[in-house]
Specification:
The structure is a homodecamer of 144-residue chains. Chain A has 144 residues and is of the alpha/beta class. The first copy, chain A, is built from five helices and six strands. The relative contact order of chain A is 0.32.
């Protein structure tokens, strides 16, 4: 444990967030996402929900201001009746932490898989909600 | 050994089943299948038949409800007279464990090999029956 | 995710629990424990408290009936005023899950470190309570 | 699969048996043995009983004629009432396959662990009987 | 050394032969073949001729009955006067061990290289005869 | 780069600082220290002086309150006239960041080497001052 | 430390510079560049600005005389108002160290990423200026 | 050191020369060649000129009699005035050691790079002459 | 294959022989020797007898002139009636190739094992004779 | 190749020299030294004499001023008539490059081996002179 680092961020996850640069993407994958088969770098966060991880990451990592929508969600498959109230939770978090009003791009399921496969890393969470996966694109920071 | 985990499921196999996500496939390969040359991840289950493995896995892992037929068999090569009574055994197991009536897609031999090559893992069993290979596609679970 | 496996148990942790045998020990280490420097096998469980992990593990893994006290706690260093109410929580969990009334041995701090160094694995949790480390010794199961 | 090799002998186990030489020891460990923590080389044989493995190995591998008792069992811990009928099964197998009448040395539990730690390999079986572990010391063969 | 395994079959070669399945190919490469640069899995058998290896392998491993010619030779390059009496030796061996009368396909030199590159393994022998390379395609066995 | 993490802390160094626990030690080694030959884990920080690293680390990582002097310096070898004004700089930094007045233990040169060899990690800096090595012992944090 | 090697050049960086040959490229990446995801070989130089690294490297490594412009910069994205005064600093350094007046090619952002992906190595610096990345193409030296 | 092996041939280089087969190519690269970035297998021979290596290799390894020109040189880039007297030295060596009068194919610079990338190995020498790189294609030997 | 290197010397064995220096020992182990469990570096030479390997090695590698007896044999265990005619064969080979009349030290069985464990390498042959193991101690060569 | 680095210093050797610190030792081993079996880190410099390497290293690396004799030679074994004129060459080089008049400690053969085993690295040269091994102990440098 270090001062100012939330304990649900693992050392490996923090290292990967630091190594990411402008335009690199990270996937917060729900418990049903095929993370191990799609990840270039896999970080386990078993047992954690995505909202608390999203908030912790959004505090540490800026989102990309060079694109219109620096976050992406997986569209509900046509015909599937699943509701996605967790998207509202994500919206609130990104509004509070990143000042973004309409941050989300919506991506068809298999296109989402392809984008996850190209992402810098995937975080395998225990999130139980369906369609709860979210991709974040990193922005830039001035030197510190 | 742990409570509730059948002893024929090896630690490595259980880990791989857990790491699989929605849509990932696993091949239960008979003793003559070219498993080592086709597997992205190879798990040995030498000396075990497929029916007992299939039942143990079906108890632990849900099958994909987003496709019509979440399991696949290798078609008998035209001209080959081999009978495949083991398919009936598989059907009974999936009916009992997964509540599926017509779970099987039938795939031509070389197409089956290509699909096995793309699968998340292959389990190399000692199953002696011919044409006994079976592919399972994982489904989704609510959080637990 | 698999049926019957709590989502806070990571695939790697489950694999290690399965591979452990009679007399092997596992340390559930609090957030301040020097886990990386002492572990023969290190499993990360960042952000999780020990009580929920202890309960999940105690459901899966039997404790050793061949020793008087199959669990161990780190003694408070003489002069340190820290209270350890979490020990009562652990006691309740082991009473409920393992039927043990007096399960704990109390081990001096540096002796505890040496025993942790010899343990089969250490789980690095985010538990914030002090003196919250606990060692579990695995028992035996009949075949299943 | 190859002609003449029983399908419960995995490729890795056969390779290790071949690489062993005069005086090297292999442990057939029951399902409760701490195999992963004691093995220099670990072979998994989950779900298999020891008798069928013992017979298959005894057919392939000679036992050491330079010692009085080329096999060893773990003594029942004093006070433990467990019966060990499986020892008789082992005795029958070694009589039939190796022509030995009194093959077994009996080793105290913790001395057995130390000897297992020095052995060339440990096979982790799913054998459910208690005190079912057995150590085999390899002998010599004329050239073939 | 094990009973019934010829001593010129190395532990690694036997393991690879066991792991091969229906349709997998293995190349027995003469001393001049570019084995290291073409092999997916390379096994050294320095100093051995191919005929004794071919006979030992043919005793253990069935050839593929689903193709007309389960073995392949490299055609002599046009204009090269080299004689290939060793092909007759190979023919005799496969007739005796596998009951095949016309087992060989003849493959142009660079096509042979490509097929070797896709093979499961290459055995680098010390065979001194030219054009002595041979590819074997594995068949199926009933359970044992 | 992440918010709040100074850019001279490398991702690997931050990961190691996070993984350290109570009582683990880290060496900030000057440019002449034999870091590669003594380190269990080596982190390069070429071209950086120790004062800026010490300040950055002291902001993130608590020092051990269970020992009298949680930092250590290498004593000047008897007969060596070297002055060590940098020790005063270190004292100021630890007073400001950790509130410690007399934080330093002074350790004989070869005893210092042995302690460095047992430390969790060594950071190889480009610090040009002589006798500028410093060891820090990590403390505890409440959960966050 | 060695005589004549600046301490901000790490051992690994010097080794890579030595191993590079005529036409190989190295990227000096600013703190926001996606270095870890694009690098074939990644060298960390956290906390260092690019100008001092550029000067140190230009003293050691010749630039390619076979191309018109042996260095490359990333073009400012259209619409972005960022100024790039650091380019002037780079120009001065290359004029002084390499005698080049117009060394820079200007490359569109995504083309720059592709070229970085093909480069021999990327140095991840802590440079805080935006658009501060620079690619260097190595030249030739007579024997020494 | 072994009898009959020149001391400038390293153990690794000799091993690679032995493992090469008919048609495999090896590049002797001068000190400016981008060896590390192009090599499938890289052997260092720092500080050695190519002529002595060429002679030592030509004594051990036959050249390919199935192609017209079993060696290749890099063409001088159009407009470059560099002289290549070392080519004459190479010609003398191959005449004396391999009995070849016109052994060299001349390959355009970037085509040479591609061929080097496909070669079995590259030897990185310290040769100071420019355009001194040479590719050798291995031939066949009768059994010994 | 290379000129002058016998084809039963594998590339790996030749590399190890080259890397050995004055006083280093190599064991030529018969088919029953526990080579894999005792070797620091293991080279397989399955299917070969020791006499032909001994002759090939003795031609390449000098024996140590600084000790009285640069070769060692394993003594027959007291009570064992085995004859060792192969020792005479070894004596003839070393007389012819190394000019030694009484080259052999005789070492008790378990002392021989310890010495093998400390040797630089063990060659696992297929030699069928019993007590056929031999240790060679390397000597010195003038530069070549 | 880089400016100012002699081409007989390999990239790996330079990296190791840089990583060494005060008191670390490096062995320049002649062609007969058992380098591979004694080295913690082995660098090959086949075909090179020690004098040119010694001079190149002495230019780059300071010797230890804290000990009386920062270099060491292997004593001639009693009874051995070998002359060691190369020691005078070494003395001249260290006088010219390091300003040392009596730099050499003389160490008995087996004590020399033990010291080499503890050294940071061994450079395996092709030096043909006997008793030509030399150990160098690194000193300190002010920051650059």
């Amino acid at each position: 444990m270090l001062r100012g680092i939330p304990s649900l961020i693992s050392p490996e996850l923090l290292k990967i967030l630091m190594e990411m640069g402008h335009g690199d993407e990270i996937v917060l994958a729900d418990g049903n996402f095929p993370a191990a088969s799609h990840a270039q770098r896999l970080v386990r966060a078993d047992g954690h929900g995505i909202p608390e991880l999203l908030r912790a990451i959004a505090k540490l990592m800026p989102l990309d201001p060079y694109v219109d929508r620096p976050a992406a969600l997986m569209q509900v498959v046509p015909g599937d009746k699943t509701e996605t109230p967790i998207w509202g939770v994500y919206g609130d978090i990104l509004r509070e932490e990143a000042g973004l009003d309409v941050p989300f791009e919506h991506v068809e399921r298999f296109a989402f898989y392809e984008r996850a496969r190209a992402a810098h890393a995937i975080v395998a969470t225990g999130e139980g909600a369906l369609y709860a996966n979210v991709i974040l694109k990193k922005g830039v920071l001035p030197a510190n």
